[in-house]
């Protein structure tokens, strides 16, 4: 089973493009969503996060995301400690999930691949890009976030140019119809590469 990574900066359209591959009957795995679900579900993760962040890490038995975000914002070392708790669990969940799939390839959406030098976990990597102004506008609308906040997240991420250099395929998501056509073309190229 080949693993294709789908990555891209904030608001580039990863989740939107993922839907195209789903429509081609390709199984998709969203690492961030699974991480969030495991943080609510796994007793071991919960215990360790409470040890790290205190009882306020959970509110009414649900992950208290704003609290965690504020703690991490003030102390970056907490992010790596949290990742060290959560990432291995997501990795083993992904392994179990992968074994159950029956398709020529699967797509794993992960915002961070190049940043942590995780390229070797993927057979191919697709990067979704879009013009910065469009991304800012889209995320402002989606999250009701300020322009400055999104801009600062973009500035902290690896540049699109760098991601493109290190990718096998690129989807330019300035316009949805063009992006969908590119996704279809990549799907067909992958099937050919995999002799399907
Ligand atoms: P994040 O990194 O924040 O998780 P993402 O890369 O997954 O974001 P999406 O959530 O797919 O990006 O897209 C961001 C927003 O832009 C969404 O509200 C989505 O509906 C919208 N969007 C994505 N692509 C397009 C497009 N081509 N045209 C118009 N709106 C779009």
UniProtKB/TrEMBL annotation:
Location in or out of the cell: Cytoplasm
Primary residence: cytoplasm
Cited InterPro entries: Depp_CoAkinase, P-loop_NTPase
Pfam families linked: CoaE
UniProt KW Repressor keyword: no
Binding sites annotated in the UniProt record for ATP: 11-16
Gene Ontology MF, one: dephospho-CoA kinase activity
Key words of the record: ATP-binding, Coenzyme A biosynthesis, Cytoplasm, Kinase, Nucleotide-binding, Transferase
Transmembrane segments: none
Top enzyme class: transferase
Presence of the UniProt keyword Transferase in the record: yes
Pathway, per record: Cofactor biosynthesis; coenzyme A biosynthesis; CoA from (R)-pantothenate: step 5/5
Protein role: Catalyzes the phosphorylation of the 3'-hydroxyl group of dephosphocoenzyme A to form coenzyme A.
Entry's family note: Belongs to the CoaE family.
Family annotation (PANTHER family): BIFUNCTIONAL COENZYME A SYNTHASE-RELATED (PTHR10695:SF46), DEPHOSPHO-COA KINASE-RELATED (PTHR10695)
Name the UniProt record assigns to this protein: Dephospho-CoA kinase
């Amino acid at each position: 089973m080949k693993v294709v990574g789908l990555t891209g900066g904030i608001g580039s359209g990863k989740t939107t493009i993922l839907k195209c591959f789903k429509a081609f009957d390709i199984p998709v795995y969203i690492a961030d969503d699974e991480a969030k679900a495991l943080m609510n579900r796994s007793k071991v993760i919960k215990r360790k996060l409470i040890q790290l962040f205190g009882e306020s890490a959970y509110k009414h038995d649900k992950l208290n995301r704003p609290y965690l975000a504020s703690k991490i914002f003030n102390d970056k070392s907490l992010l790596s400690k949290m990742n060290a708790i959560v990432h291995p669990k997501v990795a083993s969940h992904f392994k179990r999930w992968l074994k159950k799939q029956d398709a020529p390839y699967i797509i794993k959406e992960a915002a961070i691949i190049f940043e942590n030098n995780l390229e070797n976990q993927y057979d191919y990597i697709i990067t979704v890009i879009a013009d910065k102004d469009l991304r800012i506008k889209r995320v402002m609308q989606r999250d009701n976030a300020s322009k400055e906040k999104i801009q600062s997240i973009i500035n902290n991420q690896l540049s699109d140019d760098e991601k493109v250099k290190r990718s096998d395929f690129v989807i330019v998501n300035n316009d949805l119809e063009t992006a969908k056509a590119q996704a279809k073309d990549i799907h067909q190229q992958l099937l050919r590469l995999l002799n399907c």
